[in-house]
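FORM 7B - TANDEM STRUCTURE REPORT

SECTION 1: FIRST PROTEIN
SEQUENCE AND TOKENS:
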Amino acid sequence: MFAVIKTGGKQYIVREGQELKVELLETEAGKAIAFDAMLVSDEEGKSVKVGAPFVTGAVVSATVVEHGRADKVLVVKYKPKVRYRRHVGHRQPFTKLKIEKISA
């Protein structure tokens, strides 16, 4: 069974037992969290439920594994002949989740 959930302005395809990184959530590590913003639910070809915009009564249960910061992304700006150079780095914070149960 898989589902499409929405969190942090993005959509993720999730399956039970999967671990994924999402935008930073304000939940402590080890705590359970439930996503009710499920867009699509599928039971491996048996029945597909599509929400308008969300599937009613559907919940995805997950556990927060850890919080962290992603690898550094370097942004370099350069203009020739004018001595303009900018070098900036960014590390995006994330929350790692383990999907426990999908109930549609």
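SECTION 2: SECOND PROTEIN
SEQUENCE AND TOKENS:
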Amino acid sequence: MSVVIRLARFGRHKKPFYRIIVADKDMPRNGRFLEQVGTINTLTNENTIKLDEERVKYWVGVGAQPSDTVSQIIDKQIPGYLGALEEKRLAKIRSKRAARKARSGKHTKKEGKKERGKKAAPTAEKK
């Protein structure tokens, strides 16, 4: 089961009101959801956003993927949070790659080619 954080549209015709919800990826937009973590009212002058930061951090921490729009909202409300998580994830991947390369003990491409390409040099010349 993959979990996403996305918007669900509510309200009347031409008067939208959005909820930020955590739901299973396969559920419909306004269908069943796990938890509501915030709201957005786009009809006000400054787009009123209410976000439960603790719950968003929890869900992102356990692997929920925010949609593009929700990512932008999170970046506005919690500056630098998603960027820091992404940097941690990339650092972890880089360290695992480095450990894997060190464990393998293979030569680099250039060194391997030089050794394979060398022929045995004659030690004594015949006269």
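SECTION 3: OBSERVATIONS ON SECOND PROTEIN
The first strand starts at residue 3 and ends at 12.
Residues 81-104 form the longest helix (24 residues).

SECTION 4: SIGNATURE
Preparer initials: ____
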